[in-house]
Amino acid sequence: MSASDESLQLTATDLRMAAFRLARRLRSARAVDAMSDAQLAVLATLRMHGRRTITALAERERVTAPSMTNMINGLEEQGFVVRTPDAEDRRRVQVDITDAGTEIVMQTIRRRDELLAAMLSELDFTEKELATLREASALMRKVVDP
Amino acid sequence: MSASDESLQLTATDLRMAAFRLARRLRSARAVDAMSDAQLAVLATLRMHGRRTITALAERERVTAPSMTNMINGLEEQGFVVRTPDAEDRRRVQVDITDAGTEIVMQTIRRRDELLAAMLSELDFTEKELATLREASALMRKVVDP
DNA sequence: TATTGTTATACTCTATAACTATA
DNA sequence: TATAGTTATAGAGTATAACAATA
Fold first, then answer.
1. pTM for the predicted model, two decimal places
2. Contact A20/B18, CB-based, under 8 Å?
3. Which nucleotide is nearest to A66 (CA to C1')?
4. Which domains does chain A have, with CATH numbers?
5. pLDDT at A36
6. Which residues contact A28 (CB under 8 A, 6 or more apart)?
7. What's the pLDDT tens digit per position in A96-146?
8. Which nucleotide, over all strands, has the C1' atom closest to the CA of A75?
9. A50 CA: distance to closest CA in chain B (Å)
């Protein structure tokens, strides 16, 4: 049996507030202060899914092509990505993450996880409460990527 | 007995990924397209906690005072907040949300909750799974505001 | 002197419009 | 003609530095 509309609405409200506040708090933890969220999101995509064209990156990040060109310019100047002309279709430019870019992403993830682990630790959660958080995390990911 | 370091780290990683992705997905639902996240966050704070000075808002939003001055200028031009000089300390300026500002916040919250409720509904979660999400939400809020 | 807020200035991220090169 | 990317330009949000008014 599926859930009632009332349960759905109550859960949605609780979860929306909690996810927003937590994400916002964690976002302040970065590997490099000069690295923006937008740049990190592009690097994280490239690290997970490999080389992508400007257009593909723009679609994924939901920004326009000129915005992505601009962002890739910044990342390239910092040495975190490289552009490679596409041999098959010479209109295209493939963007690859560099070792330095990969390192920055990993450092940032590590910092955020350490920050969150420290926050969890201070509250003396029980194993059962942590298990609830992990179960909920899995459910939340199903919501975003069904 | 409090939880093990390993549980803390695993939970932190799961929760960090889930919260970021969900918040990102929900952020795209706004009441007004011209309203930025930064502006909405200020309005939501004023709605929940009442009048605040520029400095207090800057600290809460973790931006500098000039940035907050700039943002309040934009919100005031749109009619969503008003500045009132503080009678007791004339260096201060109190910022209040207007009815129009309150309406915008409520509309946005409603939209986001409807979007999330629809997403939850499509997955046919059980009442037990929804309860897990609500319990986790309460724990997440304790993490952010201990 | 310290605090509150503003102004001046600069950089990033974002957009739209117009352009070049290629398919 | 259509597509991939860039350049030009403009607006919002952010920062630092310097300032005025007040405590």
1. 0.85
2. no
3. D6
4. 30-144 (1.10.10.10)
5. 84
6. B62
7. 999 999 999 999 888 889 989 999 999 999 999 999 999 999 999 999 876
8. C12
9. 19
